[in-house]
Design a protein that fits this description.
By secondary structure, the chain is an all-beta fold. It folds into five domains: about 15-115, Immunoglobulin-like (Sandwich); about 120-225, Immunoglobulin-like (Sandwich); about 235-325, Sandwich (Immunoglobulin-like), CATH 2.60.40.10; about 330-430, Sandwich (Immunoglobulin-like); about 440-520, no CATH class. It is about 0% helix and about 45% strand. It is built from one helix and 45 strands. Strands 2-3-10-9-5-6 form a six-stranded mixed beta sheet, with no helix packed on it. The radius of gyration is 48 Å and the shape is elongated.
Length: about 525
């Protein structure tokens, strides 16, 4: 296809074109080469006439399509390289020549250029009318745009301008196209806006842009469309429940404040069918809602409103939860340990009231009426909404045993009171935390100061007199002479007497400073 001459002459040298690129938006495509290394360009397609021709030659002076140029010597080489900018007058051959200072022509190279001018849009307008009964458009709406071109095109670019969002669309080659323009968000005031497009040919070249209102047209739905992204406002506000409540039960009703604006219609419903809504299509506020189903709900939306602004068919959906507490709360009371041990001097334990419903007011709960069965500290239970705690203090004088929680009163959001505890309603006092005791001089006995309930749970550290681990006598109340051994005299007695079985060690305690360290009754 290419007419090429690359002759090595004694005086002429050589020249070839290795690339052509477009200028001023011209696209060059479909390049073919004479060699397998893609060094010598043979032919190409251009979308316009403004081109930049890249060359290599044995001499710096060249002429390309009638335009003279001077190349630069390539580093570390014996040839020259560079480019010449040209403007084609028509499709055809580009001839590159080597010239001498006296304008003598040397060898030449020819590249065939097919020119495909980008399509120009001749006519452009909106067509098809507004969606449905709309008179305005919101962001995301689609409106058809029709155009014609002076030569075939295979796609258009809708620019991010005025009415439309940016989009690049393709189709089969044609001189008449219809595309859907997607409306952009241009604010919340109604403004008539055009669209701006440009067409593309198969070579990838775009023509000039054209607006739907080129020439100053202002016909709505043809030259311009009215854009307005104004949406309805729906905001749920204060919910007023029956006096003294923050939730509904039975067939009770609540009043819900709703702030609305920029709407023509509204529809209220209950997504999970828990509420009946009075006048569900009325715009006014407040709305009256009545419980018709559901036992407990404080988190899942059960009241919804959908408002519509007719001009642009903009929808706004708002949701809220009208709380329901139709059944009594389930209350569980727990202690941190299976037994609450006497401390040294006192043991403080955080006990918990757990509820499966929110309790807006702290529940009341007392410990056993016995004065020696643990004493609750503070003015009441603290926390919320599902968990309340309080410290119980167990002293060495408290009597070990099982005691009951009493006088529970837990009120849920709808005013339903729970008076019974689910599960274990008792707590146990027993055991004591680690303490050390001192034996008087030459004595085998001393007082512990707290009752022992479970002999098997006794633990101790060392006897300081012998610096050996203490060993619990396997038999309660055994007075045999045993090394590093202790026993107690009786269970359930306060104060309890500890007996030191090691006679020699006790007799050597002349200073009265020997101790049994860290004796405790485990949980």
């Amino acid at each position: 296809m290419a007419v090429t001459s690359r002759r090595l002459l004694a005086a002429g040298g050589w020249i070839y074109v290795y690339d052509i690129q477009g200028r001023n938006g011209v696209v060059v495509s479909a390049q073919t080469y004479q060699d397998t290394g893609n060094n010598v360009l043979q032919a190409c397609t251009a979308s316009g006439n403004d081109l930049r021709v890249y060359l290599r030659a044995s001499y710096p002076l060249v002429n390309v399509h009638g335009v003279a140029g001077t190349l630069t010597r390539a580093p570390d080489s014996g040839f020259y390289t560079g480019y010449v900018d040209i403007t084609l007058t028509a499709a055809g051959n580009i001839i590159a020549k080597v010239t001498t200072p006296d304008s003598t022509e040397g060898p030449h190279d020819t590249v065939i250029v097919a020119v495909e001018i980008a399509p120009a849009i001749l006519t452009l307008s909106f067509i098809g009318g507004y969606p449905g009964s709309q008179t305005e458009l919101k962001a995301g709406d689609a409106f058809q745009i029709h155009g014609t071109t002076d030569r075939p095109c295979v796609g258009v670019e809708i620019l991010d301008f005025e009415a439309c969002q940016h989009a690049v669309l393709t189709f089969a080659s044609t001189t008449s196209f219809t595309v859907a323009g997607v409306i952009a968000d241009r604010g919340t005031a109604a403004v008539a806006r055009p669209a701006r497009l440009r067409a593309r040919n198969a070579a990838g070249a775009y023509g000039a842009t054209r607006d739907t209102n080129s020439g100053g047209g202002s016909v709505d739905g043809t030259d311009v469309v009215k854009c307005n992204n104004l949406h309805p406002t729906v905001i749920f506000g204060t919910i007023t429940y029956p006096t003294g409540q923050t939730a509904l039960k039975n067939s009770e009703s609540a009043s819900v404040v709703v702030v609305t604006a920029n709407l023509d219609t509204i529809l209220y419903d209950s997504p999970n069918s828990q509420l009946a809504i009075t006048d569900p299509t009325a715009i006014g506020s407040p709305k009256i809602v009545t419980r018709i189903a559901g036992n407990y709900n404080v988190a899942t939306n059960n009241l919804r409103a959908e408002a519509v602004r007719s001009a642009n068919n903009a929808h706004t959906i708002a949701q809220t939860v009208v709380r329901i507490a139709h059944i009594a709360a389930v209350i569980v009371v727990t202690e941190p340990y299976a037994r609450l041990r006497a401390g040294n001097p006192n043991g403080d334990y955080t006990c918990s009231i757990s509820s499966d419903q929110e309790l807006p007011v702290a529940p009341s709960l007392l410990s056993s009426a016995s004065p020696n069965s643990g004493v609750l500290q503070g003015a009441g239970w603290v926390g919320g909404l599902l968990l309340y705690t309080r410290v119980m203090r167990v002293t060495p004088t408290d009597v070990s045993g099982t005691y009951g929680w009493r006088d529970l009163s837990a009120t849920n959001r709808a005013g339903i009171v729970t008076t019974s505890i689910t599960g274990d309603a008792n707590y146990v006092i027993g055991g004591f935390t680690a303490r050390s005791v001192t034996f008087p001089a030459f004595s085998q006995t001393t007082l512990l100061g707290v009752a022992v309930i479970d002999y098997a749970k006794l633990r101790a550290g060392i006897f300081t007199a012998t610096n050996q681990p203490s060993i619990k006598n396997p038999t309660l109340g055994n007075h045999d002479d045993l090394l590093n051994t202790y026993t107690i005299e009786a269970l359930g007695v306060n104060p309890t007497t500890i007996f030191w079985n090691d006679v020699a060690a006790a007799n050597s305690n002349s200073s009265g400073t020997a101790q049994l360290l860290d004796i405790e009754e485990l949980v």
